[in-house]
Amino acid sequence: MSTEPRRDRLDQPVEPGRVRLPRLNPETFGRWSEAIARGMGTAQFIVWMTMVIGAWFAWNTLAPADLRFDPYTFTFLTLILSLQASYAAPLILLAQNRQADRDRLAMEEDRRRAAMQKADTEYLAREIASLRIAMGEVATRDFLRSELARLADELDEAALRREKRARMEWEDERS
């Protein structure tokens, strides 16, 4: 017995009532619909559409009666514009849905990044606070300078006292 699925076998009849529609890649169709919607949303499209409709009106009103293809009521033009609108609306909606999905993903990514930045900022704020507390326990540059200056003064005073004592002893020995 064959392991092939029934639908791929040519020696078996197709089940009645099943219509097989072509399978389209949704991503490809979505990009295609976005390209159409992007094109229809331009001034160039409006200008070209206006020119085509103007040419249609001009041809079907000014041309000889036997060359006109759409009589005065412009039924065929109405049909073409309705057909365009019936395809344009779903394509535009599909493009908008895809854009909304992209915007949602971008917003989620922005939220994630903002949460990470907030956590990093809070961490850095805690680190700075702990450094400030630790700096209260550590000698600062100004404190060290003042202590060194005080010690230098004390050493100078001690040197002056020794010098005076040595001078007094020298004078006592001389006298």
Q: Please, could you describe this protein's structure?
A:
The chain is mainly α and 175 residues long. Helices cover 75% and strands 0% of the residues. The protein has 4 helices and no strands. It is elongated, with a radius of gyration of 46 Å. It starts with 25 loop residues before the first helix and ends with a helix. It comes from Paractinoplanes rhizophilus. The chain crosses the membrane at residues 41-59, 71-95.
Class by SSE composition: mainly alpha
- Measured by DSSP, the beta-strand proportion falls in under 5%
Query: How far is the N terminus from the C terminus?
Result: 137 Å
Radius of gyration: 46 Å
Low-confidence stretches: none
The tally of strands reads: 0
Largest sheet: none
User: Assembly type of the shown chains?
Assistant: single chain
Number of helices: 4
Overall form: elongated
Q: On the 0-100 scale, what is the average pLDDT?
A: 87
* H/E topology pattern: HHHH
Helix content: over 70%
Keywords: Membrane, Transmembrane, Transmembrane helix
Transmembrane segments: 41-59, 71-95
Protein name: DUF1003 domain-containing protein
InterPro entries: DUF1003
